[in-house]
């Protein structure tokens, strides 16, 4: 039970970060710049200068697809997961599993490109791979952490009924 609370706390932070990161930084790859406020464009420029992220500079097609997936799937799942974890909903294990597998799949493609292209800076290797750990934690949460919900017994069923009696 203590492990479950610790995992839920870490994942709640992770889901909050996903929502903010996708809505502030990643979405700028898919939207035209005239739709965005200047402070978001300035943040995007700072991020590219600071981390030398060639994926944001070159905008490869697979990366745009990953960002679109994150925008359309991960944001709603992150909101649902955060709500499900805070309110201890039974379905939160399933949604954590879905988002964990999706996160790992996206990161495998990104890290594979980073290693294969040999364009990635050291700082990029400090940013992307740790999220693989969060994805694995979501999968573990979805598969192994039990969800305790309130259950009520409506009525007792007698143990011996006509259907369960032995027939001679």
Automatic annotation (TrEMBL):
Give the Pfam families listed for this entry.
EBP (PF05241)
The places in or outside the cell where this protein is found are: Endoplasmic reticulum membrane
Taxonomically, the superkingdom here is: Eukaryota
Span-the-membrane segments of this chain are 7-25, 61-84, 90-112, 124-144
Q: What are the annotated GO cellular component locations?
A: endoplasmic reticulum membrane
Enumerate the spans annotated as EXPERA domain.
Answer: 7-139
**Per the record's keyword annotation, is Isomerase included, yes or no?**
no
How does this protein lie in the membrane?
Answer: Multi-pass membrane protein
Which UniProt keywords are listed?
A: Endoplasmic reticulum, Membrane, Transmembrane, Transmembrane helix
Provide the family line: Belongs to the TMEM97/sigma-2 receptor family.
User: Can you say what this protein is called?
Assistant: EXPERA domain-containing protein
């Amino acid at each position: 039970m203590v492990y479950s609370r610790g995992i839920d706390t870490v994942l709640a932070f992770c889901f909050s970060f996903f929502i903010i990161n996708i809505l502030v930084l990643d979405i700028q790859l898919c939207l035209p710049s005239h739709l965005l406020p200047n402070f978001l464009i300035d943040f995007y420029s700072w991020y590219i200068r600071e981390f030398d992220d060639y994926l944001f500079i070159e905008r490869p097609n697979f990366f745009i697809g990953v960002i679109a997936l994150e925008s359309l799937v991960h944001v709603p799942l992150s909101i649902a997961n955060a709500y499900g974890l805070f309110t201890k909903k039974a379905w939160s294990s399933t949604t954590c599993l879905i988002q964990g597998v999706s996160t790992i799949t996206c990161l495998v493609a990104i890290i594979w490109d980073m290693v294969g292209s040999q364009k990635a800076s050291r700082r990029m290797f400090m940013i992307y791979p740790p999220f693989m750990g969060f994805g694995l934690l979501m999968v573990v949460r979805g598969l192994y952490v039990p969800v305790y919900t309130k259950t009520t017994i409506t009525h007792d069923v007698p143990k011996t009924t006509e259907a369960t009696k032995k027939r001679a």
